[in-house]
UniProtKB/TrEMBL annotation:
Required for proper 34S pre-rRNA processing and 60S ribosome subunit assembly. GO terms for cellular component: nucleolus. Residues 95-174 form the PUA domain. Keywords: Nucleus, Ribosome biogenesis, RNA-binding. This is 60S ribosome subunit biogenesis protein NIP7 homolog. The keyword ATP-binding does not apply. InterPro entries: NIP7_N (IPR040598), Nip7_N_euk (IPR055359), PUA (IPR002478), PUA-like_sf (IPR015947), PUA_sf (IPR036974), Ribosomal_synth_fac_NIP7 (IPR016686), UPF0113_PUA (IPR005155). It is found in: Nucleus, Nucleolus. Interacts with pre-ribosome complex.
Length: 180
């Protein structure tokens, strides 16, 4: 487990700020201890400093992972958030989109959210903002990017896309062979 380089740390925090804004500080300094981000084989892990100290006693070649995988850096040095980060990012999300019960299944199959599947949207959501997609019963379902601002959603056609799909909890089943 190595520290993120300055360039990769900047990419990570920009990506997190897109979804949770200034609440990134609350991910690091938590009431139950200090947490940090570490990199291992191009994957970014969110781990407690207490557990990190214990993990340093192992040979890095023998270590599979420590902590929660937040994402993976691609070969072009972009960060792709994994769905395992959802439980940590959802409580701090700035912009939220709720989908109707009839559309939850479609979103979990990897489809974008059309206006006809939109239940609610956070006020003043700008276009292309990172959003957390919820069911109407406030269960986080995944990540998305707002295709339209809140004002544009009110005037949009029912078949127009309002949220681009990025990741969802159905990925565990769809890609269980290729996750690790």
């Amino acid at each position: 487990m190595k520290r993120l380089s300055e360039e990769r740390a900047k990419i990570l925090f920009e990506k997190l700020a897109k979804f949770i804004g200034p609440n990134v500080k609350q991910l690091i300094d938590r009431p139950d201890g200090t947490y940090c981000f570490r990199e291992h084989r191009d994957r970014v892990y969110y781990v407690s400093e207490k557990i990190l100290k214990l993990a340093e006693t192992f040979n890095p070649n023998q270590l599979v992972c420590v902590g929660t995988c937040f994402g993976k850096f691609t070969k072009s040095n972009k960060l792709k958030l994994h769905i395992t980060a959802l439980t940590y990012l959802a409580p701090y999300a700035q912009y939220k989109i709720w989908v109707k019960p009839s559309f939850e299944q479609q979103f979990l199959y990897g489809n974008h959210v059309p206006k006809s599947g939109l239940g609610r949207i956070t006020e003043n959501t700008p276009q292309y903002a990172g959003t957390v997609v919820y069911s109407m019963s406030d269960m986080p379902l995944g990540f998305g990017v707002a295709a339209r601002s809140t004002a544009d959603c009110k005037l949009a056609d029912p078949l127009a896309t309002v949220c681009f799909h990025q990741a969802d909890i159905g990925e565990y089943i769809r890609s269980e062979d290729t996750l690790f």
